Amino acid sequence: MIKKILYLITVLTIISCNNANKTSMVKEYEIIIEPNYYVSLNWWGLKQLGFWGNDPNPEYLHWSNKLSEAGDDLRFKAPLAGGPLFTFIFQIPGYIGPENVDDFEIIIEGCVGFIRTGSIEKLKADWPEETKYLEKWYNHVYIDIIFNEIGEEKEDVIKTLEIWKDYIKLIWDQYLPIYNKKIEEYPFDSINAYYKNSTILLQWDSIMGVQYPYEKFIVCICPENNTLASSLGPEKIVFGARYSKDYLEHSIVHESGVRYFPFDEFASRKEAAEIMKVDYENLLRIIETEVCFRKHEIIKIDKDIFLYGMHLE
């Protein structure tokens, strides 16, 4: 308990320091709901491999075996894929959002460069606009955490990533008509109209005492995943298309609130950086708990799906 209290004191101290440097000028923000083909393709592809708790599609059994063998030590295999590879096969490509196979190959080359050098500079050089906030997420402490998990398996990560690239190239066009049919009825226009004048981020500004660090908060709709919401990067999340508008609003409020905590600034401060290195997961849990506590000022919630889903009670 004392350890967690110290975590929270450190977090709140950093936020207080930020408050002293912020102006009172009101910012304009956008909340955008949009499709993201690669994110949906990724989930669909994992399902065909049997990597998401299901039986593999016999048509793709060769790829399932090949990726399971390459990713065995990295926990990227049937029946449930996990491990550090998700940063490189899901989060970074999904965050940038390739529009075609050529874009996807360039992103994977950037990820390979990241693995070899420990730097995101190639990704930033190839995609300057799309990655302008990437350092806020991939700060030096978080990068160390990723590579500590990889350990001596860098070449295995690269090998698995190359196989994944070839697999995605194979299924890119195959999935397109499936995706178009699933996504065509999602009410993007009406939902974006609803959020056009939303005050969610302005309310968070007032509650947190600091300004939201980005111009936009982007929700990528995915018809394939079973999870409610998951993070892609600094200002982007993935939301399951099957869930209701109420769940969407709750997810926007919660996930945008989490992004007020400046991990890049944490990493630049010795005490907070040490906490990140030693117990990153519990630091995240305290931030999530703080957001759960404060968001009731913005949205009425009968049962907090994030609180109970992450066992923060």
Report on this model:
By secondary structure, this protein is α/β, with parallel strands linked by helices. The protein has two domains: 1-35 and 186-313, no CATH class; 37-184, no CATH class. It has 15 helices and four strands. The protein has helices at 2-19, 37-49, 61-70, 85-96, 101-117, 121-126, 134-137, 140-150, 154-183, 188-195, 200-208, 245-258, 263-268, 270-294, 305-309, and strands at residues 30-35, 216-222, 229-233, 236-240. The chain has a four-stranded mixed β-sheet, sandwiched between helices. A hairpin with a 2-residue loop joins strand 3 and strand 4. The longest helix is centred in the middle third of the chain and has 30 residues, at 154-183. It is globular, with a radius of gyration of 20 Å. It starts with a helix and ends with a helix. The relative contact order is 0.15.
Tally of structural domains: 2
Give a short account of the largest sheet. 4 strands, mixed
Strand order of the largest sheet: 1-2-4-3
The average pLDDT score comes to 89
Shape: globular
What fraction of residues sit in β-strands?
Answer: 5-15%
Segments where pLDDT lies below 50 for 5+ residues?
none
The oligomeric state is single chain
Order of helices and strands: HEHHHHHHHHHHEEEHHHH
Number of helices: 15
Percent of residues in helices comes to 55-70%
Could you give the count of β-strands? 4
The Rg value, from CA coordinates, equals 20 Å
The first-to-last residue Cα distance is 14 Å
Which structural category fits the helices and strands? Answer: alpha/beta
